[in-house]
Amino acid sequence: MHLVLIVEDDPSLQSVLRMLFEANGYRVVAAGTVSGGAHDARLYNPDVVVVDLGFPDLRTREMVYGAGVLVKFCDTNRGAYKVSSLLS
After folding, report:
1. What residues pair up with 4 in beta bridges, in sequence order?
2. Is 87 within a domain?
3. Among 12, 13, 38, 88, which is disulfide-ready with 63 (CB 3.0 to 4.6 Å)?
4. Does 50 fall in a domain?
5. Which of 57, 13, 15, 12 is nearest to 36 (CA)?
6. What CATH number does residue 42 fall under?
7. Does some domain include residue 10?
8. Ramachandran region of residue 48, left (φ > 0), alpha (ψ -120 to 50) or beta?
9. How many domains does the chain have?
10. Tens digit of pLDDT for each residue in 29-86?
């Protein structure tokens, strides 16, 4: 089973993304900060990282690229996307 790391500071959006992935059979780990996401990426070695690129911390992209996992950027503020496309 694939593991998805969600790095999102909005608790309601984090919750919706978690429910969406879990409903489609994925395991989910979530972090609310960039540093938490970097820690969780090293600790859990996720298959995919979904990151809010709107973090004020400019190191967001560095954290994602440094995690050594598949990265597909999605604008979660622009509407729905298919969960299956993230892992294909």
Report:
1. 28, 48
2. no
3. 38
4. yes
5. 57
6. 3.40.50.2300
7. yes
8. beta
9. 1
10. 999 988 888 889 889 988 888 887 777 664 555 555 555 554 555 555 554 444 444 4
Distance between CA atoms of 17 and 65, rounded to whole angstroms?
A: 21
Question: Residue 31: which of 74, 22, 43, 80 has the closest Cα?
Answer: 43
> In this predicted structure, what is the pLDDT of residue 25?
93
> For the whole model, what pTM was predicted?
0.71
In a domain, 88, yes or no: no
The per-residue pLDDT for 80 is 46
Full 3-state SS string of the chain: CCEEEEECCCHHHHHHHHHHHHHCCCEEEEECCHHHHHHHHHHHCCCEEEECCCCCCCCHHHHHHHCCCEECCCCHHHCCCCHHHHCC
Q: How many residues appear in the chain?
A: 88
Within 10 Å of residue 61's Cβ, how many Cβ atoms? 14
Residue-range definition of the domain harbouring residue 60: 3-82
